[in-house]
Amino acid sequence: MEFETVLVEVRDGVGIVTLNRPKAMNALNLQLTSELGQAIDALEADNNVRCILLTGGEQVFAAGADIKEMKEHNFASLYALNFPYVKRDCWRAIDEARKPVIAAVAGFALGGGCEMAMACDFIIAAETAKFGQPEIGIGTMPGAGGTQRLTKAVGKAKAMEMCLTGRMMDAEEAERSGLVSRIVPAEELLEAAFKTARKIASNSAPAVSMIKQAVNMAVDAHLADGLRHERHAFQSTFAFEDCAEGMNAFAEKRKPEFKHR
Ligand code: CO8
To answer: Is the CB of residue 68 below 6 angstroms from any atom belonging to ligand 1?
Structure first.
């Protein structure tokens, strides 16, 4: 499988997908979300693969949706495209994967990057990991599960504070709060995550798949309703001038001047 924005390798029953836009901090543009979706679908269909490992770079897992690409859109243009940032490709592929998907996170996992890690079945974090939903800073909100999955993972108080202020959580707080399964030294992240994935890949595939489904049932009841609500609300933020101002300000490296304070 050859893609530009994601690298894919299969080793010992594990499909390893690496986000690959290092110059843009692995920002999730439409090419990446599309290629990631194709990569996960292909690994899901590959009988040699029994567990999927999703990772980014040493400094950043992913810094969220590509603000510079997204800022070219308004509500009408996104509506015409059927809201491609949140509806298609990788989100559906990760959600529907029957094989376990592990996120190995070093550095920033922000906005859509944090949402992507949380969409996986569990997260192993390097001690350098930082999680956050900073969308409020650019006048919008989480749109791919942040308000729902973060709240389920860390509870209302922390999720509310993080989404309303953009405060990041470091690896230690993330582990204490239940967002990640464990922390490992940064230089050991990939090996530790790979070992875990290989262990899962060595187990009975149908039992693994059924356990994954059953554990997800424990947290996913009502998630679909919450995700639908969040998606509509996220889309609606593109109707506000503050959203365009926030994204333009980011690209122009200045502070946003929000009108609706
Ligand atoms: N989009 C586009 N470009 C980005 C992004 C981004 N999200 N993040 C970083 N970059 C670019 C920078 O513009 C910069 O480019 P250039 O070199 O051309 O100036 C380059 O990556 C390096 O970034 P910085 O110079 O800013 O690096 P720092 O180490 O100083 O800071 C940070 C790193 C803290 C990660 C900082 O870049 C940052 O705050 N980024 C934005 C984080 C953010 O707000 N994320 C939320 C985005 S909105 C979102 O995710 C909505 C989710 C909706 C659903 C998901 C859809 C896919």
So the answer is: yes
Length of the chain counted residue by residue:
261
Between the CA of 28 and the centroid of ligand 1 the distance, in Å, is 10
Give the span between the Cα atoms of 240 and 3, in whole angstroms. 35
Band of pLDDT at residue 228, cut at 50, 70 and 90: confident
**Rounded Cα gap, residues 260 and 246, in angstroms:** 12
How confident is residue 215, by pLDDT bands cut at 50, 70 and 90?
confident
Q: How far is the CA of 26 from the centre of ligand 1 (A)?
A: 8
User: ipTM value of the model?
Assistant: 0.98
| 65 close to ligand 1 (CB < 6 Angstrom) | yes
pTM of the entire structure?
Answer: 0.93
Our mutation pick for probing the ligand 1 site, out of 23, 25, 33, counting the most ligand atoms within 8 A of Cβ, is 25
DSSP labels, 83-124? -HHHHSTHHHHHHH-SS-EEEEE-SEEETHHHHHHHHSSEEE
| 146 CB within 6 A, ligand 1 | no
- Under 8 Å between Cβ of 147 and 214: no
Q: Contact 173/152 with Cβ under 8 angstroms?
A: no
Q: Which residues are catalytic?
A: 65, 112, 115, 135
Q: What percentage of the chain has pLDDT greater than the value 70?
A: 100
Which of ligand 1's atoms lies nearest the C-alpha of 60?
35
Report the alpha-carbon distance of residue 208 to residue 130 in Å, rounded. Answer: 29
